[in-house]
From TrEMBL:
Annotated InterPro entries: AB_hydrolase_fold, Lipase, PLAT/LH2_dom, PLAT/LH2_dom_sf, TAG_lipase
Entry keyword annotation includes Hydrolase: yes
Name of this protein: Pancreatic lipase-related protein 2
Family note: Belongs to the AB hydrolase superfamily. Lipase family.
Organism for this UniProt entry: Quiscalus mexicanus (Great-tailed grackle)
Reaction equations catalysed: 1,2-dioctanoyl-3-O-[alpha-D-galactosyl-(1->6)-beta-D-galactosyl]-sn-glycerol + H2O = octanoyl-3-O-[alpha-D-galactosyl-(1->6)-beta-D-galactosyl]-sn-glycerol + octanoate + H(+); 1,2-didodecanoyl-3-O-[alpha-D-galactosyl-(1->6)-beta-D-galactosyl]-sn-glycerol + H2O = dodecanoyl-3-O-[alpha-D-galactosyl-(1->6)-beta-D-galactosyl]-sn-glycerol + dodecanoate + H(+); 1,2-didodecanoyl-3-beta-D-galactosyl-sn-glycerol + H2O = dodecanoyl-3-beta-D-galactosyl-sn-glycerol + dodecanoate + H(+); long chain 1,2-diacyl-3-O-[alpha-D-galactosyl-(1->6)-beta-D-galactosyl]-sn-glycerol + H2O = long chain acyl-3-O-[alpha-D-galactosyl-(1->6)-beta-D-galactosyl]-sn-glycerol + a fatty acid + H(+)
Subcellular location: Cell projection, Neuron projection; Secreted; Zymogen granule membrane
EC number: 3.1.1.26
Gene encoding the protein: Pnlip_1
Keyword Repeat assigned: no
Length: 257
């Protein structure tokens, strides 16, 4: 059974006879997309972990793309009916959109086991454990024989609109140069299956010999990394024309460590 944002009102906190739980099937996976409290947030979805695998995309409460203004939301590419539904229950309805996208992307929507979304965001739960990460949605059951704990909470990020999946990388850049400058550092990844746009690694004071690390959610699975593109920019014209380079760039892939 795949629970697509199971309902919170009248169900959360009730006995298991009343609501969906892991005893209802051999394998129960859940996608939580609207789990903020019903009062005052109007969250329609259940917050607690109730399945064998519980996925909390974007933290499970507010989905990216759901905060668009009402007019642009109602005048939707998929039609007025779809747009109106999204305006009323956008977070709640994201669950089935992620699920349908997951059918097309068997390697997408990797869920990282983690105690909380904050820890996932700051990279504590990266990369995937030895046995790998389950994938949210249609292919979650490929992981059913590897579930070890009573409840497994899994976190991931998605895009604002379809295609929704993102692939997580850890990128560390050690700078080289003569003097510290202000500005930002961007990196793009190139690989056997595609390349990413530029992602910002750091911004502010850039010190040569320092290492800066960021976790980037890329819009494409690049496959085997073949090349990285490094770009830095200081935000204003500097008459001394400072030079800055990358001594090393390390890329770690979440999926296969």
């Amino acid at each position: 059974v795949s629970g697509l944002d199971p309902a919170q009102p009248y169900f959360q906190g009730t006995p298991i006879e009343v609501r969906l739980d892991k005893s209802d099937a051999e394998f129960v996976d859940i996608i939580h997309t609207d789990s903020a409290p019903t009062i005052p947030n109007l969250g329609f979805g259940m917050r607690p972990a109730i399945g064998h695998l519980d996925f909390y995309p974007n933290g499970g409460e507010e989905m990216p793309g759901c905060d668009k203004n009402p007019v642009s939301q109602i005048v939707d590419l998929d039609g007025i009916w779809e747009g109106t539904r999204d305006f009323i229950a956008c977070n709640h309805l994201r669950s089935y959109k992620y699920y349908s996208d997951s059918i097309i992307y068997p390697d997408g929507f990797l869920g990282y086991p983690c105690p909380s979304y904050n820890l996932f965001e700051d990279g504590t739960c990266f990369p995937c454990p030895e046995e790998g990460c389950p994938t949210m949605g249609h292919y979650a059951d490929r992981f059913k024989d590897k579930v070890k704990t009573e409840f497994t909470k899994l976190y991931l990020n998605t895009r604002e609109a379809k295609d929704f999946p993102l692939w997580r990388y850890k990128v560390s850049v050690t700078l080289s140069g003569k003097s510290k400058v202000k500005g930002y550092v961007n990196v793009a990844l190139y690989g056997t299956d595609g390349n990413t746009k530029q992602h910002q690694i750091t911004k502010g004071t850039l010190n040569p010999d320092n290492t800066y690390t960021a976790y980037i959610d890329a819009e494409v699975n690049v496959g085997e990394v073949t090349k990285v593109k490094f770009l830095w920019n200081n935000n204003w014209i500097n008459p001394t024309l400072p030079k800055l380079g990358a001594a090393t760039i390390t890329v770690e892939v979440g999926q296969n460590r």
